[in-house]
Predict the structure.
Amino acid sequence: GDSVTQMEGPVTLSEEAFLTINCTYTATGYPSLFWYVQYPGEGLQLLLKATKADDKGSNKGFEATYRKETTSFHLEKGSVQVSDSAVYFCALLYSGAGSYQLTFGKGTKLSVIP
Amino acid sequence: EAGVTQSPTHLIKTRGQQATLRCSPISGHTSVYWYQQALGLGLQFLLWYDEGEERNRGNFPPRFSGRQFPNYSSELNVNALELEDSALYLCASSLQGDTEAFFGQGTRLTVV
């Protein structure tokens, strides 16, 4: 079945450091890919998305590129802020026989220290 | 425009009781999804409803059930509650099954 693998956390960075959170997926066909963010005590917010190969999703300084050849969708940000501290989830949406399911990775907790 | 709303925010139940959680999707969205987020276990897919029908179900026992109403709002029912049902239950909605989903703030269910 479809699956998403994220790098294990937690990740601790200093403010203004470069962030990469790795995400790889296994799916038949061509899923849509997403990054969601969950701030403490809140639900999930859609951060960015990409629907086909070579698409780049971007939002709030975060970027991720849909790489079909490596089945990856790594999240990057050039300079993190304390306010970016949250749990980040990579997810894929794939349809098969008219059935759609959003499958999540286990999440990566990011802590940014001043 | 209002986002996905869930109620109640918190719910405390005793083992063996039943819990009912509610979700109102974004206006115009017909698909509703339910996820369980237990501590340390990530997000586990529970149920997907679209146009009033159950379209897909995750690997959960039958005591987890739900429905979608004609106005596309949804209910999740958990019968015979067990301690390990304690979790954050998240509802999401989308325009249709193949578009991005938007999440509510969740219902924190505690079983004592």
